[in-house]
Design brief:
The chain is an alpha/beta fold. About 30% of the residues lie in helices and about 25% in strands. The protein is built from twelve helices and 19 strands. The strands form four sheets. Strands 4, 6, 7, 10, 11, 18 and 19 form a seven-stranded mixed sheet that branches. The protein has a six-stranded parallel sheet with strand order 14-13-12-15-16-17, with helices on both faces. β15, α9 and β16 form a beta-alpha-beta unit.
């Protein structure tokens, strides 16, 4: 079958091959025919080594498709069911799950170290234990979440990661208060979803911050009240908050430099929400006095900071009701054979989300 493979960490191009086989099928597993998958920035971060991932590997973790086969003991789905791929399934038995923090379950991460593909030359890993830049993938049954018939595969794929992450950051983690002021730094698919979440929560001012003009323009269509380049954020802070700082600031880039800017843009007593996934060796520096004196809340948000199955259902309900716009998040579509074009679109900032149709 066809799949897009990264041979070594640090390479910037994927090779589309037709000699890849999905492996590992058995009890508790399902085989999925992938129909659509989104390109998330985390895929690029894994390719360049920012996020740890063994290679060679197949990127992609934001996917949807149909169940081809189920292993022994699988009862929640059957062949023919339409599903989205959950890259962080909850085991239901670990301490995090028992506390109700299923987004912190580590069971899914354990899958990342087990190859779920092979080629004649050897084993191939799937990113985050999945790997959806392929025609078929074998994953734990908990990774296959049934979706209603009226939800298209491309919309379901987005809900599987970017939409859930951004919406959840605003709704679950930060719990944005009505009438508040918000700044969102980084306005790709996840940042735009955070903007939509802040709008749903009733924020009065939502400032979108991004260096790419087309993304700033898009942010205004999704609910931002103002959109500025990074070098104009200080002026926006002065005009909108009289220099005090925003009630909530979302960092959706995953770099210490932008996180530091976000901290300085947050008012005393306000909330800084870290959404971007950064590198192990990129450290955010804060001094002990400012931590004490400013009393700013620093809230990391993992996969939207809540139960992902509940978050999926909420996103579908909001989409059906017309309260969030998911169709317009997909600004580009490419076939799997042109996956490197999708990578160029992401790196240039021209795409909010590119859907790879398989």
């Amino acid at each position: 079958m066809r799949a897009a493979v990264l041979h070594e960490i640090g390479q910037d191009k994927l090779e589309v091959l037709d000699d890849v086989e999905a492996v590992g099928f058995g009890p508790g597993k399902v085989k999925i025919r992938v129909r659509a998958t989104g390109l998330c920035h985390s895929d690029v971060s894994a390719m360049n080594g920012v996020l740890p991932q063994p290679a060679p590997f197949i990127p992609g973790h934001e996917g949807a498709g149909e169940i081809l086969d189920v292993g022994d003991g699988v009862t929640d789905v059957k062949p023919g069911d339409r599903v989205l791929v959950c890259w962080l399934p909850a085991c239901g038995a670990c301490p995090a799950c028992k506390r109700g923090q299923t987004q912190l379950c580590l069971a899914g991460f354990m899958n990342a170290g087990t190859p779920n593909f092979k080629r004649p030359g050897g084993d191939v890993f799937g990113f985050a234990g999945t790997g959806t830049f392929t025609e078929e993938v074998v994953v734990d049954a908990g990774c296959a979440v049934p979706i209603p018939d009226d939800v298209p595969f491309d919309i379901a794929a987005l809900i599987g990661c970017g939409v859930t992450t951004g919406l959840g950051a605003a709704i679950n983690t930060a719990d944005v208060a009505a009438g508040s002021s918000v700044a969102v730094i980084g306005c790709g698919g996840v940042g735009i979803s955070a903007i939509q979440g802040a709008r749903l929560k009733g924020a009065a001012q939502i400032v979108a911050v991004d260096p790419v003009a087309s993304r700033r323009e898009a942010a205004l269509r999704f609910g931002a009240t103002e959109a500025v380049a990074p070098d104009a954020l200080g002026d926006a802070k002065q005009r909108i908050t009289a220099g005090e700082g925003f009630d909530y600031v979302f960092e959706v880039v995953g770099k210490s430099a932008t996180a530091r800017t976000a901290y300085e843009t947050t008012r005393r007593g306000g909330t800084l929400c870290i959404v971007g996934a950064g590198a192990l060796d990129d450290f955010l520096q804060l001094n002990m006095f400012e931590l004490f004196f400013d009393e700013k809340k620093i809230l990391p948000s993992m996969y939207g900071g809540g139960d992902v199955l509940t978050s999926y259902e909420r996103a579908i309900a909001l989409w059906r009701a017309g309260r969030i716009d998911l169709e317009s998040l997909i600004t580009h579509r490419v076939p799997l054979a042109e996956i490197n074009e999708a990578l160029d679109q992401m790196r240039s900032g021209t795409a909010l989300r590119t859907c790879i149709e398989i």
